[in-house]
Amino acid sequence: MANVRERKAIAAKMSLMKAIGKILKEKSYSKLSINLVSEESGVDKAFIYRHYESFEGLLKSYIEKQDHWLMNLEEVTKIPIVNHRKFMKDLLTNQFLGVYESEEFQQFLVWELGDKAGFTAKVSVEREILAKPIFEQCRSVFQDYRIDLNVIYAWWSAGIYFLILHKEVSTFCEYDFTKKQDVDEFLKTLAWMVDLLFDKLEADQKLEQMAVKAHKKGLSVEDVADITGLSNSKVRALVHSF
Question: CA geometry: angle at 62 spanning 183 and 88, to 5°?
Fold first, then answer.
């Protein structure tokens, strides 16, 4: 059980985190300073230096507690991806909801985009390092199309960030992302797009299997190509690979 000193330290750290969040929500990242955080939290600056070494150390601790990626990546990367379709649906949905429901993290994203000093870049690099095992598992899924699944994910992920950050400005393509029904429609469509992507992959794989079986039953390469719509060179490559 924590003693009195430990409990006070925990309470002070919680006050600091709440103060940073309040400043971000009410004043923006540009107003963050050790003096303002200390004043807002009621925690002496000496405590900050003693427990976090610097104001930057305090901010890094705050960001790590708010960053959707950093909060989940370590756990996610421990599990091999068996079903890429389900994995991508879950990852994108959880990312959307995680960012959408955290006003503080939204402010951090704005901070990250405008951070000329490069402090938040350290956290961005850490995200990329933690995500690398996931990227490596996804890279080859669509290699037959010469398409990197990571690029597709980057495209959707960036769209999620922008639409959430833009929601207080105006509607976007007539959708109001402050309304539950429009958010639900977005998530439904996102899942449909993932299905569309993987449906094509699975359909093409089945077609290729049919081509190989047809050739094994005696059909010529030319006949198989004519029936399946695959090119002669593709059929030859398939039958030679089995």
Answer: 40
Quick one: 82 and 129 in the same domain?
yes
- Residue 23: which domain range? 4-62
* Residues 145-156 as b or e (16 or more Cβ within 10 Å = b): eeebbbebbeeb
- pLDDT score of 128: 80
Per-residue pLDDT of 65-76, as tens digits, reads: 766 555 666 666
> Are 133 and 151 contained in the same domain?
yes
Q: Do residues 78 and 154 both lie within one domain? A: yes
* Residue that finishes a domain, picked among 40, 62, 84: 62
CB distance 180 to 170 below 8 Å: no
Q: Over 60: is that where the pLDDT of 2 sits? A: no
47-75: burial string, b at 16+ Cβ within 10 Å, e else: bbeeebeebeebbbbbbeebbbbbeebee
Tokens representing 53? 């070494």
- Give the whole-angstrom CA distance, residue 65 versus residue 78: 19
* 28 and 113, same domain (yes or no): no
pLDDT at 106: 84
- Number of separate domains in the chain: 3
Same domain, 71 and 173: yes
Q: CATH number of the domain that 35 lies in?
A: 1.10.10
Q: Are residues 76 and 165 in the same domain?
A: yes
Q: Which of 54, 74, 69, 53 is nearest to 123 (CA)?
A: 69
What does the block give as tokens for 87? 């994995």
Q: Is 164 exposed, middle or buried (0-12, 13-18, 19+ CB in 10 A)?
A: buried
**pTM of the shown model:** 0.76
Q: Please tell me which residue, 134 or 89, carries the higher pLDDT value.
A: 89
